[in-house]
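Q: Sequence in, structure out?
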Amino acid sequence: MKLSTISTDLAEARRVIAMEADGLAALSDSLNGAFEAAVERIATSKGRVAVSGMGKSGLVGRKIAATMASTGTPAQFVHPAEASHGDLGMITPDDVVICLSNSGETKELADIVAYTRRHGICLIAITSGATSTLALASDILLALPAAPEACPLGLAPTTSTTMQLALGDALAVALMARRGFTTEQFKSFHPGGKLGDSLVKVSALMHRGEEIPLTTAQTRMDQVILTITSGHFGCAGVVDSAGRLVGVITDGDLRRKMGPGLLTLGAGEVMNRNPRTTTENALGAEALFIMNSKAITALFVVDGNGRPVGILHIHDLLRAKVA
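A: Exactly. Output:
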C-alpha cells in the first residue's frame, strides 16, 4: 500500500473524528432545562423506560436501553415495527418512552407515538427536527443541534448518531448519579466476564485465621523466618500488644539485612513500618492497583482499628481473574 494512500486514510479518519467531536461540543452547549426535566421524569417514574428507534437510531436506542438497565434504570428496547404488531403491550401507563429519530419524521414510530398520546404516557423525543412531527408530539424534546454528518456525502448517519449515543449516556449516568448507584449494585448486574471478576471484593479472596502469618516486634528473627516460610506468602506481619499491624517483614527484607547477626535481631529491628494495607470491603481491583504500584505480592487486610483480619496474595487475584 502506498504511503500516500495511508496518509489519505488517516486524514479522512481524523476529519470524521473532528467533525463528530464538534457535534458533541455543540450538543454539550445546547443542553438546557429539557434535559433536567427528562432526568426528573424518568427518575420519578414508577415503570420502565421504553426506548425505540428505526435503523441506525434503533441500534443506538438498543445501546441506550442496555446502558440504563445496567446502571440502575429499568429499561428495554421496543422495535417500532414489532410494536405495531403487538409489542405495544410491553409499554404501560407508568412507563416513559424515548423515541429517537434524526429527522423526527420516521413513519415506523407513528404507532408508538400515537399510543403514548392515547394513554397519557410520557414521550421524550431525541431528534434534530425541532419542528418535526415527533418533536411536536413529545412531552419533552431533547433537540440535537444542527451539525453536518461526517459522511462525505452528508447522508449516512454519523455525527447525528454519535450525538444520540452521547445524549443517551448522559441520561443514564445522570440517573445513576441521582440514585446513588453503588459499586455493589453495579456488580450485581455484571456478574459475568472480566468486569464481574474485577468487582469481586477482597473479603471473598483473602486468607483468614491461622493462615495469617503474624509475629511480634520482640520475636527473634530465627523464629520470624520460620513464620514466613510456613505461611507461603513471602512475608510476615508484625503486631503490637493491641494486635495492630505495625510492620511487615518480607523475603526481600531478609536478603537486604542478611548478615552474621540477623538471626539474633528482633522483628522490630528489621520490619518495614507503616506497611500498605487494604480492607475487606475494598475491590480486588483496588488491591491489585496497590500491589502493582508498590511492586509487592501480598497485602494484609486490616479492620477499622488496624488489626489484621486477613492476607491477600497476588496469586489469589490471578486465580479470581482479577489480575
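The radius of gyration is 29 Å.
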